[in-house]
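Tokens in:
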């Protein structure tokens, strides 16, 4: 068989067909496929992040429900503003039960220095000054009983002094405490009811 110019051109054309197909068809298609794979990976990464975020949102919903439950619990411990008199009477009764002489229990004027709550809070705080006298163990029992009360109260400062230099155990205790309560719609300071 003789190879002439015609046969050489024919063989060259036959060889150029696969090269041309690769250059004009397969190479652009491979580039398009690589681009699509990269987009798919990016979208899958975003889906993974979204799934993680959705899982966290579910956890956040559970935490929000738990915190709402805690808020409801503590709000149940707050008396209405009208019930502060009952709490003051309860403090007086506790002092008597522990054989303490309650010299005075009086309300103090509310001020921004004395409050633990923000100004826009729906809860209120009433500072009270308490002056007691009696046996130290009675005072200790009184403080334990006060701590175990269901209502939220806080002792802000306390002074305890022995009554004499002997070992009698009789003390004078003066302290300021705060009673926390749910405020009424009108923000009037609480004033104790006069005793009849």
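Residues out:
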């Amino acid at each position: 068989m003789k190879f002439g110019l015609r046969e050489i051109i024919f063989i060259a054309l036959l060889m150029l067909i696969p090269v041309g197909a690769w250059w004009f068809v397969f190479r652009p298609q491979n580039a398009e496929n690589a681009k699509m794979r990269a987009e798919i990976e990016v979208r899958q990464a975003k889906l993974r992040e979204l799934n993680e975020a959705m899982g966290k949102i579910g956890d956040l919903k559970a935490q929000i429900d738990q915190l709402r439950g805690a808020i409801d619990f503590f709000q149940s411990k707050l008396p209405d503003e009208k019930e502060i008199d009952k709490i003051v009477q309860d403090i007086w009764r506790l002092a008597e039960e522990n054989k303490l002489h309650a010299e005075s229990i009086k309300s103090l004027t509310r001020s921004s220095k004395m409050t633990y709550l923000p100004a826009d809070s729906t809860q209120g705080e009433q500072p009270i000054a308490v002056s007691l006298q009696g046996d130290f163990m009675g005072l200790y029992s009184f403080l334990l009983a006060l701590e175990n009360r269901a209502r939220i109260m806080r002792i802000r400062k306390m002074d305890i002094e022995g009554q004499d230099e002997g070992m009698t155990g009789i003390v004078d205790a003066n302290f300021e405490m705060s009673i926390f309560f749910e405020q009424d719609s009108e923000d009037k300071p609480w004033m104790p009811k006069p005793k009849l």
